[in-house]
Each structure stands twice: as structure tokens, then as C-alpha cells.
């Protein structure tokens, strides 16, 4: 995950793209995607809950605001993907004629939904055939979560 301060990149390094349509570190050419980071955090929570907790914090809007305080989007909402440290304008979003990402950089729910899904999975809140259940993860402190559908907790 390092050296990206805002979550893991979608590739370990950018690759040449036909006609240079995507710059290195942008979008699917090495960018940072909230949706993918959420799934990776969920998977990590199954094997290393404390590590998943750290990964969750790194993909938050608060982490983006700390790393890139001069970029207004990413502080209270964000795009589908951020540019990574692999290329130009890290912390910003990509420019691509087919996708108006820089024109409307907060018109996507992944910056909110991804970390929320990851939070639930890191805590061990899972869905099951009979409803929602808590499968406490080892290595995490005690917690309590109150939602519209119920209150969930784990002793830690």
C-alpha cells in the first residue's frame, strides 16, 4: 500500500496505454479506487483485522484531506478514482474525454459507500441467510455501532 497515503493503487505500477489515453497513475492505470480498496480491506479483515483497520483509515476522506488539503474534492466527497503517486497530480482525479471526472468530481458514491462497507466488514458485521450477524474480529478494541436496523457490538 505504501507509498500511497490514500489507499492502495489498482496496479503495482502503471502500464503503457494505447494512444496514451490514460496517464500513469490515473484511473485504471494505477489510480486509487475506493470500491476496490473496500473489497481489499474486507478480504484483509478475514486474515489480519488490525491491518485492515489501518487500511480502512488510509482510504478515508480524512486521510485524503490530510495528505492533499489543497484539493477540495476528497475532503467532503470524492470521485470514482484518485490519481496516485505514480503519476502527475496525485490526489486529484483523472481527465478523460469519455468520463467527466474532473468536471464533476463528487458525483460518485464510492468515496462514501466503499469505506462504509469496509468498516462493517472490518468490524465483523456480515450478512447471513437469517439476517445480519456479528462475527467479531480478533485484535480489535471493543466497539458498538448503532444503525437504523439495530445496534451491534463486539467485546474486542
Your description of this structure?
The protein has about 160 residues and is α+β, with helices and mostly antiparallel strands. It has a domain of about 110 residues. It is about 30% helix and about 15% strand. It is built from 4 helices and 6 strands. The strands form 3 sheets. A two-stranded antiparallel ribbon has the order 1-2. It has a two-stranded antiparallel ribbon with strand order 3-4. Helix 2 runs antiparallel to helix 4. The relative contact order is 0.17. The mean pLDDT is about 90.
What is this structure's SSE topology?
Blueprint: E1 32-33, H1 34-45, H2 49-58, H3 61-67, E2 81-82, H4 110-123, E3 125-128, E4 131-134, E5 143-147, E6 150-154
Antiparallel strand pairs: 1-2, 3-4, 5-6
Helix pairs in contact: 1-2, 1-4, 2-4
H/E element sequence = EHHHEHEEEE
The assembly state of the depicted protein chains is: single chain
Shape: elongated
Helix content: 25-40%
- Overall SS class: alpha+beta
The percent range for strand residues is 5-15%
Task: Provide the gyration radius in Å.
Answer: 17 Å
Ranges where pLDDT stays below 50 over 5 or more residues in a row are none
Main sheet: strand order: 1-2
Distance between the termini: 26 Å
Secondary structure: number of strands: 6
Helix count equals 4
Largest sheet: 2 strands, antiparallel
Average of pLDDT: 91
Amino acid at each position: 500500500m505504501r507509498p500511497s497515503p490514500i489507499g492502495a493503487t489498482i496496479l503495482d505500477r502503471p502500464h503503457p496505454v494505447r494512444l496514451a489515453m490514460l496517464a500513469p497513475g490515473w484511473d485504471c492505470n494505477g489510480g486509487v479506487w475506493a470500491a476496490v480498496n473496500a473489497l481489499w480491506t474486507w478480504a484483509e479483515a478475514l486474515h489480519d483485522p488490525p491491518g485492515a483497520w489501518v487500511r480502512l483509515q488510509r482510504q478515508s476522506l480524512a486521510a485524503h484531506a490530510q495528505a492533499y488539503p489543497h484539493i477540495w474534492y476528497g475532503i467532503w466527497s470524492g470521485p470514482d478514482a484518485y490519481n496516485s503517486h505514480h503519476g502527475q497530480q496525485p490526489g486529484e482525479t483523472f481527465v478523460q474525454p469519455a468520463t467527466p471526472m474532473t468536471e464533476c468530481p463528487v458525483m460518485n458514491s464510492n468515496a462514501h459507500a466503499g469505506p462504509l462497507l469496509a468498516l462493517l466488514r472490518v468490524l465483523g458485521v456480515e450478512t447471513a441467510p437469517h439476517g445480519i450477524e456479528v462475527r467479531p474480529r480478533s485484535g480489535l478494541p471493543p466497539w458498538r455501532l448503532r444503525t437504523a436496523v439495530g445496534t451491534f457490538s463486539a467485546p474486542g
